[in-house]
Amino acid sequence: MIRHLVLFKLNDGVGRDESRVVAGARAFEELGGLIPELTSWECGWNVTDRPIAYDFAINSSVADAADLKTYLEHPAHQAAAGQWREFATWVIADYPF
User: Fold this and answer.
1) Angstrom distance (rounded) from CA 85 to CA 83
2) β-strand 88-96 against 56-62: which pairing, if any?
3) DSSP string, 29-47
4) Separation between Cα atoms, residue 28 and residue 88, nearest integer Å
């Protein structure tokens, strides 16, 4: 199994309540049900106001590297990630568990 973690930081001046951010979060919330290779899917907004905290997180898993590749190349993933490129930066970690 591979865990796929993504932490998003909204760009300066971008708020969670902006329509494009709301649409981006919705796209990720729906993504878990669209890609069969995902064996688990969680995402959500950070609830603390610590200065080092990121704003939005995805915690997901797949069976193996082939399934991770399929997920990353899936059109629904590409579309969702494309929305976030307009208003956020992110860090990713993929590790076996």
Assistant:
1) 6
2) unpaired
3) HHHTTT-TTEEEEEEEE--
4) 14
Say if residues 88 and 9 touch (Cβ distance below 8 Å): yes
Per the CB < 8 A criterion, the answer to whether 8 and 89 are in contact is: yes
Alpha helix stretches (DSSP H) within the chain: 19-31, 65-73, 75-84
What is the value of pTM for the model shown?
A: 0.93
Reading the chain (97 residues) residue by residue, the pLDDT tens digits are 999 999 999 999 999 999 999 999 999 999 999 999 999 999 999 999 999 999 999 999 999 999 999 999 999 999 999 999 999 999 999 999 9
